[in-house]
Amino acid sequence: MLSALTLQMLQPGLGQRLELSLRCRGDTCLDGVQRREQSCCPASFVSTLSNLFPSLWPRWKNWWVRGILTLAMITFFFIIIYLGPMVLMMIVMCVQIKCFHEIITIGYNVYHSYDLPWFRTLSWYFLLCVNYFFYGETVTDYFFTLVQREEPLRILSKYHRFISFALYLTGFCMFVLSLVKKHYRLQFYMFGWTHVTLLIVVTQSHLIIHNLFEGMIWFIVPISCVICNDIMAYMFGFFFGRTPLIKLSPKKTWEGFIGGFFATVLFGLLLSYVMSGYRCFTCPVEFNNDTNSFTVDCEPSELFQLQEYNIPVVLQSVVGWKTVRMYPFQIHSIALSTFASLIGPFGGFFASGFKRAFKIKDFANTIPGHGGIMDRFDCQYLMATFVNVYIASFIRGPNPSKLIQQFLTLRPDQQLHIFNTLKAHLVDKGMLASLEDA
Amino acid sequence: FLSQEVDLDERFGELDLRNDSDIPDVPPSTDSTPEILKRALSGLSARWKNWWIRGILTLAMISMFFLIIYLGSFMLMLLVLSIQVKCFHEIITIGYRVYHSYDLPWFRSLSWYFLLCVNYFFYGETVADYFATFVQRREQLQFLIRYHRFISFALYLAGFCMFVLSLVKKHYRLQFYMFAWTHVTLLITVTQSHLVIQNLFEGMIWFLVPISSVICNDITAYIFGFFFGRTPLIKLSPKKTWEGFIGGFFSTVVFGFIFSYFLAQHQYFVCPVEYNSETNRFVTECEPSELFRMKKYSVPPLLQAVLGWESVNMYPFQMHSIALATFASLIGPFGGFFASGFKRAFKIKDFADTIPGHGGIMDRFDCQYLMATFVHVYITSFIRGPNPSKLLKQLLILQPDQQLDVYKTLKSHLVEKGILQPSLRG
Predict the structure, then answer these.
(1) Does the pLDDT value for residue B320 go beyond 80?
(2) Were A372 and a residue from A138, A210, A363, B18 both cysteine, which residue would form a disulfide, CB within 3.0 to 4.6 Å?
(3) What residues are paired with A29 via a beta bridge?
(4) What distance in Å separates the CA atoms of residue A197 and residue B47, rounded to the nearest whole number?
(5) Using an 8 Å Cβ cutoff, are A257 and A243 in contact?
């Protein structure tokens, strides 16, 4: 309560309101008003800031705290990008584990189930199993040659599904054996809670990694669009906000929503223009066997080569150009930003509804002014799935090396059949002369 | 009805979730035994009466099973689909009852909508592979197939947004619980029914042997327990005994062994199901694979003394059937214990009253689910590689230059292996 006293001394008139804002108990804060500034910041940090900017303090305090933390997170983001795909993969994994931990902790709090020690072990065990399964599949695809060289890895990858299933089954049987009389319902609830959390958190973090391997631009542009939409909608709402958008989140407004939409589309166009020029962003991540490291070096695909587009007549008068040189990827970025602005917020509303349902203010207190990791990433999850589905449907086909892998496991007669069909198809298309060529 | 301002969340929050005492009592299930049976069995004592009802219904179900098998794979697929829908309905109804959420009419529509979406996604992925030739001919279907994932995702998203928009003040927690309940149910029932169908398409024997092993294990464990049962097995199911468990295990292995011997001889059961576009029907005709050709095995010296033979003619599939039967007897029951725990947690006697003497469809199928996943994983790990027609389909989608690369790699591989002669032209 020391911090409350400090603030009261600085701003006697507003001390009452600010003092109310810091009355926190454990994970949850008592508040009657849905104001973000009443989150539980570490008291020392807030009091330091309040000492630095006494005159700006009253209205803009929350703005400053959030602003500084936002800049800190964005800087951190840039550093990680600079460090490369491997570090990014690690970061995604850490974020996933932290999100899982946050949601499971909420479950424990809701169900008072700290008395069931087995449960924590089992939840983490299931997390491990599902991660093992997904990482094994991804690793087998992308590190195919590395895996084939090492004998133990080869066996693990050949029987990967069976091993993952056996591990999962062990967890399932342990759960059944751990059922205790009088606590059945609790245990089933935690089992259900764990599985839904795994479904949300783990599958989507793996989709993010798949997008990342497709090319860093497929990772950076969607995430930046969601962040930009958050920030822009907040700013538009702050300055122009009048009409409430949805009862779930009273602070969101239509002005913020629409302003955020246009700003995000524009931002996406500009960002993809800048990024498409660099190979390190546009090339798929590959593992180089000789140097044993990741490389991003390739011939840029069609998407990342400048092309001339005719401007529709309507816009010609506005913009004054007849044609414009753009990357085809920028057209895709419009689709991505549109999704981020229109559907992404539904992920945020879902999380808001969840927090109200379980009467929590934030998922956790990890980031001052922002809440937990999950609070920052709630809109990202829908985005990750969308980008993955988008890429699979519209951008690239299947992975050729994976197909070759699968081909090699077929029986000889099946291989011959496929080979002949492919050959006939290529001859049809005129790709192959009807006589054998090398 | 929602204007009745009973804050369901508040009431729910007050429920003491630390023990199960607050679950509302479910009215005792009505006795749906037909009158005929009741009159016929009126003279017997309660113990034998139950035995007779269960026995008659068991025979009825087994006969229906044989009938469906006779009708072919397509009927089987429809049967699996109806069972899946019924199981989903049973579990969702239990959820409604537990959470008193009949007052949220949106929820029923949303649950069924999600079931439709997930089924659409899975059927589109699996069935489209098998009906490739049928699909190639129709233009509209081509479009649906090419953008299948995107369309399924869009449909699911629409449901998700509807859910978010339907969140009503004071009912948030209930709605989130039903959302989660629906998703877990989908995960359990729908994914596994599709695995069952994929096993079926691999060859009817991969569908019949696992299911019969589970049923046999159920029946023989019950019989062994009935006659010899002394030591209880697990607190969850007081009627199960160690004698029943072990006796059931050995009988199931023997049963699986003998049953697969008979099935492996007929092409109808052994061949993968294929769709013939000319006759527009399913055909099961092929050259039986290695698994289904008799081989000579030497009997290990231990058993030689017992059996008196030195070698025996068996199908390799019978070795696999031992693995399947073992799983059905040892791990399958865990599925049953899980369902028993679930029923106790929510204080219900049976999932539903559909089958007299047996309870609901879910009661009969609780052990099958783990089995279906196991068989599928077993097949993909140990038996067959990927599906050739699916592989071909994916090859044809590639970019032309990628196709050329792949072609060259494949060619060099085949020449290396001697499967393709370098001088062969076309």
Answers:
(1) yes
(2) A363
(3) A24
(4) 45
(5) no
User: What is the DSSP code string of B25-44?
Assistant: PPPPPP----HHHHHHTTTS
How far B334 CA sits from the closest chain A CA (Å)? 6
Q: Which of A141, A210, A386, A389 to mutate to test the interface with B (most CBs of B within 10 A)?
A: A389
Q: A398 and B394: CB-CB below 8 Å?
A: yes
Residue B305 burial (10 A CB sphere; 0-12, 13-18, 19+): exposed
Closest residue in A to B173 (Cα) is A357
Interface touch A159/B181, C-beta < 8 Å: no
- Whether the pLDDT of residue A273 is over 60: the answer is yes
Residue B290, pLDDT above cutoff 50: yes
Please compute Rg for chain A using Cα positions. Answer: 26
Contact at 8 Å (CB) between A39 and A23? no
With CA atoms as reference, the chain A residue closest to B413 would be A408
Could you read off the pLDDT of B198-248 as tens digits, one per residue? 888 888 889 889 988 998 898 898 888 888 888 888 877 888 889 889 999
Predicted local confidence at residue B329, as pLDDT: 92
Q: Which residues of B touch A175 (CB under 8 A)?
A: 338
* Interface probe with B: pick from A172, A403, A428, A434, most Cβ of B within 10 Å: A403
pLDDT in tens, B63-97: 887 887 777 777 888 888 888 898 888 888 887 77
DSSP A325-369: EE-HHHHHHHHHHHHHHHTHHHHHHHHHHHHHHTT-SSS-SSBTT
Instruction: Quote the pLDDT of residue B358.
Output: 66
Prediction pTM value: 0.78
A25 pLDDT higher than 80: no
Residue contact B407–A422, C-beta within 8 A: yes
Query: Which of B75, B83, B96, B68 shows the shortest CA–CA distance to B189?
Result: B83
Nearest-CA distance from B363 to chain A in Å?
A: 17
Q: Tell me which residue has tokens 């085949």.
A: B414
Cα separations in angstroms, B66 against B71, B75, B79: 9, 12, 12
Instruction: Tell me if A349 and B164 make a contact (CB, 8 A cut-off).
Output: yes
Residue B232, helix vs strand vs coil: strand
Report the candidate in A54, A49, A61 with the shortest Cα–Cα distance to residue A18: A61
**pLDDT at residue A50 greater than cutoff 90:** no
- Is the ipTM value over 0.90, yes or no? no
Read off the pLDDT band of B326 (50, 70, 90).
very high
When comparing pLDDT for B364 and B124, which is higher?
A: B124
> With an 8 Å Cβ cutoff, are A404 and B17 in contact?
no
C-alpha distances (whole Å) from A283 to each of A213, A225, A387 are: 9, 20, 17
- Give the residue with greater pLDDT, B372 vs B347: B372
DSSP tally for chain A: helices H, then strands E: 19, 8
Answer for the pair A267, A328: CB distance below 8 angstroms, yes or no. Answer: no
- Alpha carbon B179 to chain centroid, angstroms: 23
Task: Report the Cα–Cα distance between both ends of chain A, in Å, rounded.
Answer: 81
Per CB-CB distance under 8 Å, the chain B contacts of A133 are none
Return the percentage of chain A with pLDDT > 70, whole number: 76
Helix (H) or strand (E) holding A318: helix A313-319
- What is the pLDDT at residue B8? 44
Higher local confidence (pLDDT), B152 or B99 = B152
Contact B236 A176 (CB under 8 A): yes
| Arithmetic mean of pLDDT, A76-97 | 83
Cα A405 from Cα A397, distance rounded (Å): 16
